[in-house]
Amino acid sequence: MKKILTFFLVIGLSLSLLAGCSQSGNDKKIVVGATPTPHGEILEVAKEVLAEKGYELEIKEFAEYVQLNPTLNNGELDANYFQHKPYLDNYNQENNAKLVSIAAIHYEPLGLYPGKTTSIEELQDGAQIAVPNDTTNEARALLLLETLGLIKVDPDAGLEATINDIVENPKNLKIVEIEAAQLARSLPDVEMAVINGNYAIQAGLNAASDALAKEEQDSLAAETYANIVAVREEDKNSEKLLALVDALKSDKVREFIAEKYQGSVVVVGQP
User: Fold this and answer.
1) 122 secondary structure, DSSP code
2) pTM for this prediction
3) For the segment 220-252, what is each residue's pLDDT rounded down to a tens digit?
4) Which range among 131-140, 180-189, 232-241 shows the weakest confidence by mean pLDDT?
5) Rounded to an integer, what distance in angstroms lies between the CA atom of residue 109 and that of residue 127?
6) Do residues 244 and 58 lie in contact, with contact meaning Cβ atoms separated by under 8 Å?
7) Is 176 exposed, middle or buried (0-12, 13-18, 19+ CB in 10 A)?
8) CA-CA distance, 206 to 225, in Å (whole number)?
9) Using CA atoms in the order 229, 231, 236, 237, what is the torsion angle rounded to 10 degrees?
10) CATH ID of 2-108+224-267, from 3.40.640.10, 3.40.190.10, 1.10.10.250, 3.20.20.70
11) Do residues 162 and 147 touch, judged by C-beta distance below 8 A?
């Protein structure tokens, strides 16, 4: 009987040791969810940096970004990289979640792109300008138009402004609200459109070279809407996730962003 008990005790200890080794191994694997462009592309470079430090990065790309926070929240991901802080805050509030940002990495400036009209000076009375129809990015678009002197927005509306908060519109511009993903396709039908950075990139547009105007690095929007790395609150001090941040802020990733995106993606803290 003692031999049987000893046998099972040895087996139990062996399994415990194996479980410990497995857990230790997991500390070197990082599973991150992201949208393909530019986040997935940037993570591929960070993956090389992490490999040099002994970490394995698994990138899970999501075509529908609305799935990324729920998938992180339920534990299927260690982190995600696709969103800005206002979007994260809104998700937490609506879902009673506790996801947190551990770093701001880059921002993608909204740009005003020419459609049927090729310069701001040529805009005629009643011209149509398309903007994103979601609250966050519509406000950004309106503030960009305001910096150009085309409209004036109620200052009390701030970063939640909609077309209803336009208080001055000297050219009687028709601001057309369109789903962000469709804005680039709308260009042949409107005089101009304000397009999100990621959708502009996918359409072959560059805010630095193709836009008539864009959000600047020192703008409120650039600071507020920087893209972040989000994690569950209990993991905010995780060694491997801090290593992920270090990789995303490495010189190798910074150089890749500068060369690849030529100003359509801008590293936080970089000109």
Assistant:
1) G
2) 0.77
3) 777 888 999 999 999 999 999 999 999 999 999
4) 131-140
5) 23
6) no
7) middle
8) 18
9) -80
10) 3.40.190.10
11) no
